[in-house]
Amino acid sequence: MSTVQGTGSELPGADAVAVGKTPSAARQATSDPAPPVLDIHDMTVAYHRRPVLWDVDLTIERPSLVGIVGPNGAGKSTLIKAVLGLVPLASGKVQLFGQPAARQRQLVGYVPQRESVDWDFPVSVLDVVLMGTYGRLGWFRRPGRAEREWAMECLRHVGLADFARRQIGQLSGGQQQRTFLARALAQRAEIYFMDEPMAGVDAATERVIFSLLRELRESGKTVLVVHHDLRTVPVYFDQVALLNMRLVAFGPTQQIFTNDNLRKTYGGRLDILEAAGQALADERRSV
Amino acid sequence: MIAYNTGVVLAGASFLGASSGLIGAFALLRRRALLGDTLAHAALPGLCLGFLAWGERSLPVMLAGALASGVAGIAVVAVLRRFTRIKDDAALGIVLSLFFGAGLALLKYIQTHAVGGSRAGLDHYIFGSAASMIAGDVKLIASVALVGLAAVVLLYKEFRLVTFDAPFARVQGWPASLLDFLIMLLVSVTVIVALPAAGVVLTAALLILPAAAARFCTEWLSAMLVLSALFGALAGASGTMLSAGGGMPTGPMIVLAGATIFLSAMCFAPRRGILARALADRRLRRRIDDQKTFLAFQRLRVPAGAAGMTFDALRSEVTFSPGRLRRALHRGEREGLLVGDGATWKLTEDGHRRVASLARAQRLWRAFLVEYPDLASTFADLDMERIDEVLPTEMVAELEKI
Question: Do B164 and A172 touch (CB under 8 A)?
Answer without folding.
Answer: no
